[in-house]
Amino acid sequence: MQNIYLRQSELSLSQTAFILVTVTDKKGSIPSNIGAKMIVTEAGLVSGTIGGGALEYKAIEYALELFKNKTCITSHKINWNLQKEFNMVCSGEIELFFDVVNFNKWEIAVFGAGHVSQALINILITLNCSIACFDSREEWLNKLPNSHKIKPINTNDIAKNIQELNKNSFVLVMTHSHEQDWEIIRECINHSFKYVGLIGSKTKQKWLKEKILQENLPEETLNRIFCPVGISVGNNSPSEIAVSISAQLLQERDK
User: Fold this and answer.
1) Single pTM value for the model
2) What's the pLDDT at 47?
3) Tell me, what DSSP letter sits at residue 211?
């Protein structure tokens, strides 16, 4: 069983989605043991076994179907009667638990790698997510923590990078320039991201409203942007702002 746990760890570190299939109960003549496990990725069986034969083939096939229809899929149990389901000679029932791991990866895009971003990303890497951090300043990107969860991107082509983001991404705008902030926000307005947050104060919120009206955009556009970003706790230090933003991200994610 050690090998399967090692494989789980490797897949988690590489952020590869997988399904851990476990025999949780059985009745009658079943060619498997309670506790038997196997791991299935989109490529098929990668480790372990739940007994082989038609049962295992069917479980792999079922897991692969979950990958094809991955929206709103959660971990769940399923019960099969071997004689009825597979026309097998041996009779009995089996209960399998399909544990879906890292199926819908939480993707966070951070524009700007300054002090608040540095503090925030150090918190976010403790969560199950992937982070893309965009900045034109190489020296600030180099200060980001060394983690497989972070992808630092040195770029000036903001629009292109936003267009390439997953529509389910959470976007945080915290650059060193108001002009660049607006360029990013303006592009985000044309996309339906799950979350868009802009760092700043109440004064910046007024500035954002003015920019939206100047562009002849609907005033309700402002309601789609969290500005000031974060929940109302703490002081104005980068570390405490980072905590408030992290809390808001979790609130919105769990909605």
Assistant:
1) 0.66
2) 94
3) H
